[in-house]
Predict the 3D structure of the following.
Amino acid sequence: GSARLVPGTRIHAIDREIVVHARTDDPVFATLGNVLDAGECRALIEMARPRLKPSTLVDPVTGNDIISAMRTSHGMFFRLLENDLVTRIDRRLSALMNLPLENGEGLQVLHYPLGAGSEPHFDYLQPANAANRESISRSGQRVSTLVTYLNDVPAGGQTVFPTLGWAVSPLQGNAVYFEY
């Protein structure tokens, strides 16, 4: 099928023009600039900081959320439209990703302390167990992901796509988009 991401080198997403730095159609993948500004990044970090907890992942056998050495970040979710800033960003990302706002998950903020990371994984639910199948039937399957970087880092921090041999550098306000 065709990509959901709006075509072109610049995408008007409600209140901002997003720059498409690079994109491919197979797989559907894009690196984007100007998704968030520095003030939005700082505000999201400050609002998220007191709510961060150890990140979990879904156990492929049981489907339960577990804390694992394969994912050593801390994270939290904002509710959709939780406050004015989150509402503005939710609406912008809905337009950018070309999906209805109500189909989205709340913004998730992940903090990776020095040395932390995440092992390679799929970003969608694999229907291999009952819990995943129940989750898919309850709230649907993920069809795309947008990872937006809230700060620059001195080294490391790339989002790596090992099968493709690609690594996207974390630059504040930029993002990587991919579909499944």
Observations:
- The mean pLDDT is 84.
